[in-house]
Amino acid sequence: MKNDDWKESASCRDYEVNLFFDDYEDNESRRPAIDKICSECPVAKQCFAVGVSQREWGVWGGIYLENGKINREFNRHRTKADWAETWQYLTMDNK
Asked: How many domains does the chain have?
């Protein structure tokens, strides 16, 4: 598998890319729906890893990053339970 082949399996591949960048920033009420797309994505772990390692900005694996780091402002809509579920999904080996 090539380094970016995971993108072909991404749940977001048929969505307008701006949804995960400017739209996410500008419309807080849409953030939970966008997060849900990522939470059901089979390649969210790879996406998040790329976002962090390549110091990206925007939504990567369901978490808004800025320069590869979690941005508190654009993730503040999450509850502690949301964070726990998201973090477990992205970092644990769920067999």
From this structure: 1
Q: Can you state the percent helix, strand and coil of the chain, rounding each to 5?
A: 55, 10, 35
What are 21-31's pLDDT values in tens digits?
999 999 999 99
DSSP letter string over 58-77? EEETTEEEETTEE-HHHHTT
Residue numbers of the domain that contains 16: 5-91
Closest by CA to 7, choosing from 49, 47, 61, is 47
Q: pTM of the predicted model, to two decimals?
A: 0.89
User: What was the pLDDT predicted at 91?
Assistant: 87
